[in-house]
Each structure stands twice: as structure tokens, then as C-alpha cells.
């Protein structure tokens, strides 16, 4: 907007931030990036002073294509890989997990590490009591495993599961 009475050209604002006109967008982006702060800091700096649709995506693309930024970028933390020893007998070690919901139903998946034999049972809801009952049914068919591996889901870390596993060992 022009303020002709004072002889100055005004600014278009969005809140307290200046709206970037097309002619100045590249120049402002270069200025924001001049210190090579990285994506998060550059976005934060931009949010404090200026606005335009798509500025976040432009900042991400600009930094992804900056050789200086990429050369000093921190690598993501490496997770330690856990390798299991191969079991020596069927149903010595089993892996369990829940999948779903699919059509309001969950699936309890039980896989033998030795034979790769899967057992799948459907359940509603995924309570610890239902989990214990499904484990008992599978244990009655194949025996009690020495090792039960899970992702530490709530149903598999509950007191009733701990009691079941303590009786089994």
C-alpha cells in the first residue's frame, strides 16, 4: 500500500511480519540463509520477520541444496541393531505383537523364531486378560516358550502377563 500523503511507500503486513513481494523473495531468502544456521533456525528467523505462502518449503529446498550446510549437517543417531542368536528348537523363542485395527478387529500375531510358524488370533479388545487367554491357548498347542519377545506394548507388560511368564519359567 502506498502512503502518498507522506511521500513513502508502506508495507503490507501479516500480523507483525512483512509480506514478501515476489521481487524480493530470493534476496530475502539468501539473507536469511547467509549465516547457514540450518532449517530450524532459518525458519524461526523467517517467522520473526517475514511471511509468504510456501516460505517453509523454499527454506527447506534451499538448505537441502546448499553444499556448505550439507557438509556440516549432523548425521542421525545410529540405533544399535540387536541380533538374536538362532534358536536351537521350535517354539524356544517366539515373537508376539498386535496388528490393527482392521474393521474394528485386532490381530494377535505369534511367530516362532525357529520355524517361522505364525499363529494369528482375532480379538476385541486388546486387554491384558485377552492376551493371557490367547497365550495360554497357543502355549497349550505348542508348549511354553523359553523367551517371549514383544515390543513392550501395554498388554504385554502388564502384571497378568508377568504372572503368566513367571509360572511358565
UniProtKB/TrEMBL annotation:
Source species, domain of life: Eukaryota
SUPFAM superfamilies according to UniProt: Ribonuclease H-like
EC code(s) of this entry: 2.7.7.49
GO biological process: DNA integration
GO terms for MF: nucleic acid binding; RNA-directed DNA polymerase activity
Gene3D superfamilies for the chain: 1.10.340.70, Ribonuclease H-like superfamily/Ribonuclease H
Domain Integrase catalytic: 86-169
Alphabetical list of PANTHER family matching this protein: PROTEIN CBG26694, PROTEIN NYNRIN-LIKE
Protein name as annotated: RNA-directed DNA polymerase
Provenance organism: Anopheles stephensi
Amino acid at each position: 500500500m502506498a502512503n502518498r500523503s507522506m511521500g513513502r511507500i508502506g508495507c503490507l503486513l501479516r500480523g507483525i511480519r512483512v509480506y514478501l513481494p515476489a521481487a524480493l523473495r530470493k534476496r530475502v531468502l539468501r539473507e536469511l540463509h547467509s549465516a547457514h544456521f540450518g532449517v530450524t533456525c532459518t525458519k524461526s528467523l523467517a517467522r520473526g520477520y517475514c511471511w509468504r505462502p510456501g516460505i517453509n518449503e523454499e527454506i527447506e529446498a534451499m538448505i537441502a541444496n546448499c553444499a556448505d550446510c550439507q557438509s556440516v549437517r549432523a548425521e542421525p543417531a545410529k540405533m544399535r541393531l540387536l541380533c538374536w542368536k538362532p534358536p536351537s528348537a521350535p517354539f524356544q523363542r517366539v515373537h508376539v505383537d498386535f496388528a490393527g485395527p482392521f474393521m474394528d478387529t485386532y490381530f494377535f500375531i505369534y511367530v516362532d523364531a525357529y520355524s517361522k510358524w505364525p499363529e494369528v488370533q482375532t480379538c476385541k479388545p486388546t486387554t491384558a486378560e485377552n492376551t493371557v487367554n490367547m497365550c495360554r491357548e497357543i502355549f497349550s498347542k505348542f508348549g511354553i516358550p523359553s523367551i517371549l519377545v514383544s515390543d513392550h506394548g501395554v498388554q504385554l507388560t502388564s502384571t497378568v502377563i508377568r504372572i503368566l511368564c513367571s509360572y511358565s519359567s
